Amino acid sequence: xANDLHTLTIHEAADLLRSGAISSVALTExxxxxxxxxxxxxxxxxxxxxxAALADAAAADAxxxxxxxxxTLPALLGIPLAIKDVLMVEGMPTTCGxxxxxxxMPPYEATAVGKLRAAGAVILGKTNTDExxxxxxxxxxxxxxxxxxxxxxxxxxxxxxxxxxxVASDQCLGAFGTDTGGSVRQxxxxxxxxxMKPTYGRVSRYGLVAFAxxxxxxxxxxxxxxxxxxxxxxxxxxxxxxxTSMNVSVPDYRAALTGDVRGLRIGVPREYFIDGxxxxxxQAVRTAIDALAALGAEVxxxxxxxxxxxxxxxxxxxxxxxxxxxxxxxxxxxxxxxxDAETMWQGxxxxxxxxxxxxxxxxxxxxxxxxxAGYYDAYYLKAQQVRTLLKQDFERAFERVxxxxxxxxxxxxxxIGEKADDPLSMYLxxxxxxSLNLAGNCGLSLPCGFDEAGLPIGLQLIGPxxxxxxxxxxxxxxxxATDWHRQRPDLRAQ
Amino acid sequence: xxxxTNDVEHIAHLARLELTADEIDQYRRQLSDILxxxxxxxxxxxxxxxxxxxxxxxxxxxxxxxxxxxLSTEDALANAPDQQDGFFRVPAIFGDDxxxx
Lengths: 494, 101
Fold this sequence. Notes:
The complex is a heterodimer of chains A (494) and B (101). The longest helix of chain A has 25 residues, at 376-400. With 494 residues, chain A is α/β, with parallel strands linked by helices. Chain A has a domain at 2-265 and 469-488: Amidase signature (AS) domain (Amidase signature (AS) enzymes, Alpha-Beta Complex), CATH 3.90.1300.10. Chain A is built from 15 helices and 11 strands. A two-stranded antiparallel sheet of chain B has the order 1-2. Chain B has 101 residues and is mainly alpha-helical. Chain B is flat and about 55 Å long. In chain B, strand 1 (83-84) and strand 2 form a beta hairpin. Chains A and B meet through helix 9, helix 10, helix 11, helix 12 and helix 13 of A and helix 1 and helix 2 of B.
């Protein structure tokens, strides 16, 4: 048993910690040993702080020992977690996968991370990401590419690929990522884990390094739906330090997992089953929808007619916001400053030219163009107007259905290098995920099968704004009826 | 939409990005392809549609104007590439050596 503690889910480990069967130190040591054993191959972590993690674990054990009524303790007490390297964690560098922040030590901590600490979680380290969360494969990380634990020659998805790969290979019990256009759900799908994008405004963005401020949202990656609910419980809620966090009550998401979907109306959007998608993906997702129907859900075909416009809208709105957000990297207050710059002007251009990678520069250029004089109306304003139409599509759909079911990704994990030279084909990897961010919905990806090569397939469940309970309930009911979430990659065989 | 080298140089200037000649050529081709792909938006009738900048019904909020602790000077300067006397130190902005605008 002792050697396998890293394979536990959060809720399993929480029960064992409370019964006294295991300690957080033993659990954390098992996970750290697992990291030593496999992360040379997976490359999920950018930074690890084992001493701090073991100190946090010892503190959790002391709390457990000093508490008689352990049922009142927070669910994440003593649980080792990983954090995507775009969230500021005190005592750990925040690089955002970029050279421009190579030695940046954050002067304050993200609200979401502070909430995890307050819940007693053990923070293991920072996970790899595409640079500034811009990408779908982690290949845009300035440091290295993370490998998919199911097939080390393939990408884990992105941008939260480090977090997804760490969860899938038992190098943490759960993790957090960020989702601007699919960056939690798509890697969750490609790595065979659960990943949730909460509603915009559900989780504070304070201390999250901004990519596209109207779209970014922090979300959990987990081994099963129950764990995702526990992780969301810990971070959800209003934060006066984020003016876009919503002051609405936070339900107990675990309590929403009733296992009952009888009468739940599930919409299946015809626009999400397209030519060119992998046939095994369509088949697995349709089989999953049949399984939900067999559990008593009512399946309804729906239409989201503006779906084809989501990709251009996203790749105008997100880069436009990014081009403004990333203006702060000017070599003055923090981050890289080009050593050869002799003037202030050169300081800006040389620092940014050398510090940003190709995809970040491409998006800054695209966004700057869309916002520039003469093109603003044709591109940026037009995209914002079509964004309204996308939002209306979902509003109309949610008058008829409670949840929408569709694929998370049109394909399973692709090979490292396969799309690296073709930005447009890489952008298409997010075609099923990005409309949620634009419309302000919540969504989740969970495992629903494997292709012939043994690669995981993800089912995406979409809810209306602040509909996380319904999405989690449907996901959990499906999960209970299947065993996809119990499959784990065999890293030794590769 | 076909961008010229001049277009790309102008965008790079606005974005304060120093690009190599190879990068300029690459971005000219890639951004032209991407914008071609996005031309589909022009066909959508949005004449009566308001733009969405945020999905939330955001309103300004007020709070009491009370002093709260912030970052210390030391913490604020901890990541500075260069500093002097409690300030960020930068190359000259004005003068003969400052190739600004």
